Amino acid sequence: MGTSGAKPGSKPERERLRHQLLAGGSSPERIAAEMAGRWLFNPRQAWRYTHGLSQTAVAARCNDLLGDPRAPMTGKRISEYEAWPQRGIRPTIHVLALLARVYGTVPRALLGEDELPLLPEPERLVLDQLPLGEAPAPGPGPLDAAAVRAAAHASGAHAELAEVTEVGAITLEQLDHDVVQLARTAILTQPAEIFGELVRVRDRVFQLLRRRAHPAQQSHLYLLAGQTCGLLASASMELGCYGAAAEQSRAAWVYAEIIGHNGLKAWLRGTQALIAFWSGDPHEAAHLAKAGREHLRHGTGFVRLCNIESRAWAYLGDVRETQAVITMGHRAREQPTEPDDLHDLVGGEFGFDEARQAFCNAGAWVQVGRPVLAIEAAERALRTYATDAERNRRYGGEPSTRLEMTDGYLAIRELDAADDALEPVISTPATAGVAHLSTRLSDICATLDTAPYRNSREARELAERIRAHPVLTSR
């Protein structure tokens, strides 16, 4: 028994063996095999010890070979590759090829016989085509035909691996269809009815992102991930879960950033502005909506951002900014542009039609004390809703517009007109799912309880009918 106290395979023992074998003329293959056999190192550990390198030093050499200034390889990552398969991370063919260049061997030499079956079949097929013995770098002098053929075979093997994908075109086509249908259904129904399906499609996209895919397919999946998380952000906001909505929107933003999709980034900034607005932060809402215009300077998406921003400025009482962005939105609507792949071609929750624009205008004008302009805008919205096909109507669009119109009529003391505008909303329990309905109806009741309506019998009767609506009686 030794007296050094060092455990078997410790660095002093490894270095002593390495120098003895090198002095005796042993090859690196012989040294790696001896280390693996004597101390049960796996091949990746044995080859590193053969060269007397630390994990950090191996990572540095890998990064030098890659020529990547971001230095993607780290000592910790080398440790994880060496710990596999008991734990850690499985090295891919590309990683094995990179390590093989560092150690002066071939990728197959870095896998044990018990590890090879754990590789995906496409990677095993590539390994089978690669040389099994030592792969010295070509030296100076004329090349023979065998070396040229070997280089060609290596290129072909790598190309074959690059061609392999675990994401099919039909799968992506189906997911595109699912997202389009969900985006269009989202404006026709309550969010609770489609929330589960949104989660299912998103999770399917996440599963596919863990598979091998071509760069174009991966970008496609990131777009789908951004769209589904964005739709979940919108649904969460409609359900009043603003923290969850903000988190979903931040996740969607990451995917939009990865693929550089300006349309999705613009839509997400608008959605984040809405979340901030309904969370009680109109300053942040205005800032986010304005920031969104940096990503999209025309078309439907730009119009949407202008109108979201107008609601925020109106809430803050800034008439000048409110009018400026409303005008900007109308000018943008009038300018001919190419259809946007998200706002126009997918549409639905990602879209923003003229009825929605007029509704937003009505809400902004009411807020800044311009009731006549608000009523005119609400009338435009209702006319548009009346002519649209039923399948294109936004869920809650007409009731929400009537609420803004009611506020406008009350502001100019036209109680009968306000009653007529509000009657379709309060006469049916079907409107109970309209976002913020209870808050808006309570606000109208508060208005009717103050001058000049406080002593009006008609105002009291209208307030009583409002309070009888299920959305208020169930609280």
Please, could you describe this protein's structure?
The protein is built from 24 helices and no strands. The protein has helices at residues 11-23, 28-39, 43-50, 55-66, 75-83, 93-103, 121-129, 145-163, 169-185, 191-209, 215-238, 242-259, 262-278, 282-292, 299-315, 319-334, 341-346, 354-367, 371-387, 397-411, 415-426, 437-448, 457-467, 470-473. The protein starts with 10 loop residues before the first helix and ends with a helix. The model is unreliable at 133-141 (pLDDT under 50).
Main sheet specs: none
Task: Tell me, briefly, the overall form.
Answer: elongated
Number of helices: 24
Strand and helix order:
HHHHHHHHHHHHHHHHHHHHHHHH
State which percent range the strand residues make up.
under 5%
Short account of what is shown:
By secondary structure, the chain is mostly helical.
Provide tags for this entry.
475 residues; mainly alpha; 68% helix; elongated
Q: Secondary structure elements and their pairing?
A:
Blueprint: H1 11-23, H2 28-39, H3 43-50, H4 55-66, H5 75-83, H6 93-103, H7 121-129, H8 145-163, H9 169-185, H10 191-209, H11 215-238, H12 242-259, H13 262-278, H14 282-292, H15 299-315, H16 319-334, H17 341-346, H18 354-367, H19 371-387, H20 397-411, H21 415-426, H22 437-448, H23 457-467, H24 470-473
